[in-house]
Amino acid sequence: MTESRQLGVLEEFRLEFQSYWPRIPRKGLVAALLAGWILLFHLLGNSTFGYIRTPSLLVWMWNAYAANDWDEGHGLVMPLVVLGLMWWKRRQLWGGHLEMWPPALGLVGGALALHVLGYLIQQPRISIVAFFLGIYGLLGLAWGRDFLRACVFPYVLLVFCVPLGSLAENVTFPLRMLVTYLSVGIAQFLGFDVLREGSLIFDSQRSYRYDVAPACSGIRSLMSLLALTVIFGVTAFRTAWRRWVMVLAAVPLAVVGNVARITFTILVTELFGQSYGVQIEQRFGFVTFAVAIGCLLLLERALREPPVPAPVHATGGDHV
Hints:
globular, 68% helix, mainly alpha, 16 helices
């Protein structure tokens, strides 16, 4: 049953693809422009020859994702997500009139200038923004202004492909303090004798100690949840304010998820000993996302829009 259903989905995709592919004009031009743009950033994309000695911005990005896959690994997934969402919006993107739009060269020129700036001051993250901005401009050149307007979302999701690296510390530190403060406060409210010193958590006898490290601060879940809430908000709602509420909910959801996990770790340690608490800390990281996703679904339910009324078709005349 599952296999036949899967084959049905694949067959439906094949038929849809065959239907839309002939409608897309200037495919050869788009392929040539994208190949030249990618080649430029592969050969002259990176000027920082420190830990990664390569002129390729693409190789630099791959190493940034691979070196910190827990915090930056979503950068490898987002292009696939964007392609999937573009296919989901295919009727808007490729269903209308597609024409050459020379003003899009302004975007390409701006992207080149931005890349030159990033190259000269040795900031690959600026060049990454330029790389994706240039692709956006090239698509607009080949397929027109209406295409660019229609694909602002999901294309903007490619911002999550920019690795934060040490820049995340500006967000990580206050998140660590907030998560530690809330977790200890909840444990104390429940009657457990725990103490806090900065991001360190002790019991009153100091027989155990936990450090809310940067990795546990919420930055991992925050980036993933932010991408998820953007996708969820735009696809699930029509009104702008509901979309913004969903997007802005990513920060409190990340905090709530991490507070739940750390508080649970403290309670298990107090009740059963530190060895059990360590097992919870190391093996139950999914609690963060489970709690956050549960809250996300409750929020979606609270914000759910009324269904769109079916259009009323006029009758041919009055009935007597």
